[in-house]
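@channel anyone free to eyeball this complex?
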Amino acid sequence: MKTLRPFGSPFVIILALSLIGCRSGPIEGRSSRARTMILTSGPTEIVMSSSKVPGYWSQETYSEQEFFLYTRVRSFEKGNRVEVEGPFGNAFPAVFRDEAGLYLRGYGPTLVLVVWKMERSDDQNDKRPGTQEAADHAPHH
Amino acid sequence: MRRIIKTLWPTLLLGLAFVQAGCRSGLHPWVPPEECKVTIVSDAAFVRTGQGDHVDGYLAEYNTDFRKERMFMVLEITHYLKGDRLILNGRFTGDSVRMPFRDKKQEKVPVFLVERAKPNIPSVPVIPTLK
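replying in thread with the prediction:
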């Protein structure tokens, strides 16, 4: 057993370095609080891990941070002010910027928010009846 | 004896790690992305490559050494149209697809993996005014 002792410490160091190197996924916090956003695009899509992800580009009113809102609902329009709930994380998707005709692979880091609930914001001046119907409840996996 | 093992062990592990990384199949030497001006000559297509990948993209033509060459440009989002002129940034993957040519003969076309594509809008030439 004594003969194995010298092997111990380098092995632990290499194991620790390997684990650090192999860590995948973002380390930023996740939050599901409601956020007020302005949609900066109509219904569009991005691609992550060869899967098409439908949704909208948006900008948070408070921080001006850009998000991609993952939702299958296509009833919202560019310029709509919406209140969104759901967790988010960083990703490097492939995107097509409609306004510039630009295609970018590995674009990012992009904050992708999985929409649990999405509805037109109440503080919008031109509040119309029926806006609540457009609420989205994305499936939970 | 123990001291020799203690000294050599990390070096041996490191060497093994490098050898393993070098032997991994599918690992290619890094090549810088190249720029290419192309014209799309087909509608969007989903094809199987020679190495067995299934990819989305377009058949495109570009000029090199005053010759017209063809490539299959791979994009994950295919929002362009036939006839669009683009400036591409990306790499040839070494893979190819079989595409029909003019006289219905199959031709091996190299695959170009697009990282960035933007419309190629030629700027208006500056013509000096006559005095």
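from a first look: Chain A touches chain B through 23 residues (CB under 8 Å).
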